[in-house]
Amino acid sequence: MPHPSSTVSEAYRIVELATPLALVQLAQVAISTTDMLMLGWVGGEALAAAALALAVFNLLRTIGFGLIVGTSNLVAEGTGDGIPMQHLLGALTIAAGAGLIAMVLMMAGCGGLRWLGQDAGVAELARDYMMFLAPGILPLFGFYAYRGVAVGRRKASFLLAITLATILINAVLDYGLLFGVFGLPRLGVPGVAAASALAYLAQFIAIACITHRMFAFSHLSSVAGLVAVIRRLLAIGIPTAGSYGSEAGFTALVTLMVGAWGAAALAAQAVVNQVVYVVFMLSIGLSHATSVGVSQAGGAGEHERARRVGRTGLLLGVTVACVFALIFLLFPAPVLALFSLSPGSTEAATYQAAHALLAVAAFVQLPDFAQNIGIGALRGVDHAANGFWITLASYWLIGAPAAWLMGFHLIPGAAGVWIGMGTGFAVAAIGLFWVFYRATADATTVGPVAEQRP
Predict the structure, then answer these.
(1) What share of the chain is helix, strand, coil (3-state, %, to 5)?
(2) Total structural domains in the chain?
(3) Do the Cβ atoms of 431 and 283 come closer than 8 Å?
């Protein structure tokens, strides 16, 4: 039984690394949140269109992040002052390939939304939104590659300054391109998407310049070494991207299900999902910090400590989720007012739907936090592939049927769909931590990622 001070010490280490990461994640999602706030000034149709477009964008963004996330684990294993150049180049190579594919998919597939049972006007506006947003995904993936280097060396504080500057750039461009001020063309709703794409480009340039000034990189040893790193990153990244992408795809399916209930329900989904997405960024920081902590403990041969890090990360995540659940339950009106929604507004139907959905979201985010931290813990013990299969089964064999059954039969409406989604998250969380505990029970399975690859 570990001494309580050991758990407190691990909690401090997790929070120390997770705080800048969570702040960066919050700042990142502040870009799309700013977009949604400004689109709320336009009306419910604009919010609904953004919900559809962002469902696709977030699915592809999450998959790309998962492919690159192993960069921090590889960098964390190193003990020297210099960082192997092949780690950065490998991450950038994967980022470029994944970014180009994602951009093409967004541009080619955006016309198919009207065939998925969505309102015709909303689908048309969502198509235009995605066309302007698509180019931004390529520099965003490049940003993730550089961020992995900083996180692996536990020097992530400067990322916050970059992202805060990006928020300001995005807000100015949002307003300018939406309404045609500051000498910018008036593009309307698609202008908000164009602003985000330009903001992602600016943050990529900033992090690239600062990273090369802050860290020393060794010379590329050989092309074979680069290929080996890419293979190792993909060995970590493909199952992780599968896990993350499975959840994002599941969430996109939920959005489409909610959209079947009309534009007001879809607009409510856009608002509540954005609120939950903001809070979820805290779990991303905790998950990443937990994963790095588990990797470091396993690399040092401290196998019991690796288990303690995972357990502590879970406790922190559930605690944070409970705090925000209380906020959603006690203060729903002020939260919705941020998106220009109130009982007496012209969007009263959207407000009522969002109010009910926010109460359900308060409970759904608890298992959502837990399963995301579980994914990070399994990545730290080199069991990312197991995490993928667990989440795949939980989301699609349990969560999706439950969302359909609850949302269209037992509790018709958006709230029922979300209850079904939460069921999938809960099953995933249980399965992930069950495998994590089994993995850490055998000391031979815990170690740095590099040593586990053939």
Answers:
(1) 85, 0, 15
(2) 1
(3) no
